[in-house]
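Forum > Structural Biology > Help requests

Title: Can anyone predict the 3D structure of XRE family transcriptional regulator?

Hi all, first post here. I have the sequence for XRE family transcriptional regulator but no way to get a structure on my laptop. I'd be grateful if someone could post the C-alpha cells.
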Amino acid sequence: MPRQISYRWRLRELMAARGMFTVAELMPHLTERGITLSSSQVHRLVSGTPERLSLPVLATLCDILDCTPTDLIATSAQNLPVRRAAGEEAPINLAARRPTRVRLTPEG
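Reply #1:
Sure, ran it for you. C-alpha cells for XRE family transcriptional regulator below:
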C-alpha cells in the first residue's frame, strides 16, 4: 500500500521557546560552532521549510536549541487509498464483446 510521508519544520517554534525571536539572535550561536551562513540563508532556514539540510547544520541547530532532530522535524505518514484502473470495478464480460457468428443460408 502506498504511503505519503510529510514533515513539519519546527525551528521557529523551538527558537521562540528558548527566547530567540530573530535571525540575528541565532547567527552568533551558529558562528561560534563553526557554521558560516549568510543572514539570508539563516532567514530561509528560520522562516521556511528546507528541502535539503546538511547534517552539520542540523547537529548544530540541535546543540544550540538543546533538542533532538525529532524535536526539530515532526514527521507523519499515512496510507494512501489504492487507485483503481478504469473499468476495474466490474469484471469484463467477454461474451458481450464478441461478434455474433454469421450463419449462411442457401438462397432459394
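The CA atoms of residues 3 and 79 lie 4 Å apart. The chain has a mean pLDDT of 88.
Shout if anything looks off.
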